[in-house]
Amino acid sequence: MLEQLRMQEVSQIILSKPKGAVIKQSGDDFLTGEPIMIINNPSLSNLSFVAKPVNADDAQGHIGTAGITNQIDFIINEGSVLYALWNYIYGLHEENPGPTKIKGNEYLTTNPQGYIKLSAKPELTPGQDKVYVYKVDDNQNRLLSVDEYEFCVTEEEPREWYIHIFEAQEGETYFVNYSYLIEPQTISTIKQIHNNIFATMDIYIDAVDLKNDDKHVVYIHCDKVQIHTDMVLSVNNSQKTSFTPIRIMSIPEEDTVATIMVI
Fold it and tell me: Which of 65, 85, 125, 209 has a CA-to-CA distance to 237 between 20 and 30 Å?
């Protein structure tokens, strides 16, 4: 029946934990058969059944070449950034990790008394954190010495943090760089590890019968595949978008590359 079906688009891809693999998630292991990633309506896919040529030779030379289909190549150019899949492969993921220090900067203008108000509480741990204050004048930044300013904080709640610049005039612009604490939703610690993972794969492809226009679903199952993925972030580029290219290569299990079923 496959010969009279026209494949239209991949509707869903399910990658699940295979037997013997260990995949961590938030301190617990995935169960065998549990989905680790579900991709709905990927933007572009290319499914290839790859045949490996095997040559037969004798003393007189070449006799013939046989092709053995022992692998499936499935390339997905997903239009969205699959952060979860990318994170499983590359990093250690934490949900609501608590206060985390980051470094930021801001341009601020002095009030009539020479004060500038900071947007966050600066971290001032001796030997670790330092605040840099620059005076912006004609697009040139001059670093102020610690003798030219002081830190001030209001007594009433919520407290506000200021920098008092002694010789500042009203309306002057200053550039301040400092560390402060935030409450991130997630943190990923990226590790230098191999960018691949093993899984079972289930593919659902929408298809139409060319003879009678009946709609069908083609189901493809692979017991074991290896997944390679990168993450491409295109920033301020109107010609390209961010996407996650994923390459999936099947690994034969007991001489079976894949199972194809028409539903």
Answer: 85
171: left (phi over 0), alpha (psi -120 to 50) or beta: left
CB-based contact 15:36 (threshold 8 Å): yes
Range 100-186: architecture per CATH: Sandwich (2.60)
pTM comes to 0.58
Task: Give per-residue pLDDT as tens, 221-233.
Answer: 888 888 877 767 7
What are residue 165's DSSP bridge partners? 149
Distance from chain centroid for Cα 198? 18
Q: Would you say 53 and 240 are in contact if contact means Cβ atoms under 8 Å apart?
A: no
The residues near 50 (Cβ < 8 Å, ≥ 6 apart) are 69, 70, 71, 72, 73
CB neighbourhood size of 110 (10 A)? 20
Domain ranges of the chain: 6-52+82-93, 100-186
